[in-house]
Amino acid sequence: MRFFVVCPGGLEVSLAQELASIAQRPDCKALGAWVIDPTPTSPTGGVGLAAPLSAAMALNLHSRIASRVLLQMADAQYRQEEDLYKLASGLAWEEWFSSKQTLRVDVTAHRSPLKSLNFATLKIKDAIVDRLRDVTGDRPSIDTAFPDVRVQAHLTATHVTIYLDTSGEALFKRGWRDEKGDAPLKENLAAGILAITGWKPSQTLFDPMCGSGTFLVEAAQIALAIPPGAIRSGMYGDDAKPSRLAYRPLVTSAHGFGFQRLKPFNEASEQKRWVALKEAAQAEMIEKRKQFPDSGSLGISGSDINERLVAMFKGNWQRAQLPGLPVTRQVDALASKPPADAKDGVMLLNPPYGERLVIKGGRGQDRTAGDAERDSYEDVEEPEDRFAYNLETGRQSAKRSSRESLKKLQSEEEQDPKFVEFLRQFGQHLKDTFGGWNVFVLTADMALPGQLRIKESKRTPLFNGPLECRLFKFEMHQKRDATADLK
Ligand SMILES: C[S@@+](CC[C@H](N)C(=O)[O-])C[C@H]1O[C@@H](n2cnc3c(N)ncnc32)[C@H](O)[C@@H]1O
């Protein structure tokens, strides 16, 4: 089978590495051979692979960086809407789901000659519905909020590719976050950034502006070998309890993954494989818990100036079923100290940068259409979660929109000497207090190194939804011991 694994723009290399390591797991090797496409050199918004059908289960359970896992159903040339209808109605949908299940269709396009994507969506939807009605005598109904089955199509100038989505809810929704901090990061972007930093669970990790703690919860799950899909796959038995402040419905094991609602995955042989995958993951979790029995043993900690966010971080940590309470306190980053006096470690943060300004940008030639109006829940999903195959122009338009907003943002920052002064002081604090540390900062502010007055040793372009960012790496030199000269 052909799969396309979608990820946030800029994480393709990290995703390809992650897919390769998932493929190397003994339980995944047992499923059959995987051939991962060469790592894309341009931003494709994902990585393709050929693998047995069961690989979809392993990918949904284990990929921390993926947004979705799409199973390719057809790829063909087209010229007009009628060609889409013919192609979609020729596919044996009845072998994948029943007319009792609800459906949602989404179409994205890059340079498609078709005038209306909504009409193209309608054609594909009609084709699927008509096919099922002809075969079963019944029509599936449409549900845009929580459909049982999602079909995605992507149109280029000449080709249409039709996919069945095996993820259901986007994979960044792990099921532990129901509280929104100040611009929290998507969980899969945070996991991808952790991969770029090269952080290992044996190293100290500290986030002095941790907000709701996305980096830290993801890191703790990596250290404890907790699969990102642990909650959704029901590995814990109990789902996380939503808090009073829940801003979006928690994704639970009842939502699970899209593949669980597709017929071929419900056959006894696949069910057996699914159970084996979960058991193997469970065994690893038990082993790692022995190594890290409590939060103190993890070496992962964070702080934030905002008490409310510190409380949110605690709630997220608990809902993620991590041990005890996280090591955290409410403190100004300008007063933060290396945890446990660590002489080195990885600091990772995304300071406030006003990204809410930026989300409003247009998407140039890229177009997206789906079933009816998107409800507000879907509105918070960003383009790569809907379908990022067409990131090339997405990138251009995102660049445009983020550039405009950035100008606005930078001019606002220029008007806000307090923020500029804060960054100068923070840079000095890093030099004074965190010698020996590697500091990684995710920001949309390209001028950040100048404002911190520290030269970066590396910059990695990344997309936080439509917002173009950089992950800056600063290698803080050990301060020379002034008394050493006197000895
Ligand atoms: C963009 S948010 C970080 C989001 C976080 N990564 C998350 O996953 O939720 C920036 C955070 O910086 C915190 N912050 C702002 N000024 C601060 C300061 N002087 N010291 C510590 N934290 C600060 C804010 O309270 C906010 O939580």
Walk me through what this model shows:
The protein is of the alpha/beta class. It is 35% helix and 17% strand. The strands form 2 sheets. The chain has an 8-stranded mixed sheet with strand order 2-3-1-4-7-6-5-12. A 7-stranded mixed sheet has the order 10-9-8-11-13-15-14. A hairpin with a 3-residue loop joins β6 (149-155) and β7. α4 packs parallel to α5 (117-136). The chain is globular, with a radius of gyration of 23 Å. It starts with a strand and ends in a 12-residue tail after the last strand. Bound molecules: S-adenosylmethionine (SAM). S-adenosylmethionine binds next to α7.
Number of helical regions: 15
Q: What structural class do the secondary elements suggest?
A: alpha/beta
Give the N-to-C terminal Cα separation: 69 Å
Spell the H/E element sequence. Answer: EHHEEHEHEHEEHEHHHEHEEEHHHHEHEE
Low-confidence stretches: 354-365, 371-402
* Envelope shape: globular
The largest beta-sheet arranges its strands as 2-3-1-4-7-6-5-12
Helix content: 25-40%
Give the overall pLDDT as a whole number. 86
Radius of gyration in whole Å, from Cα? 23 Å
Largest sheet: 8 strands, mixed
Q: What descriptive keywords fit this protein?
A:
487 residues, 8-stranded mixed beta sheet, 7-stranded mixed beta sheet, binds S-adenosylmethionine
In short:
The chain is α/β, with parallel strands linked by helices. Helix content is 35%, strand content 17%.
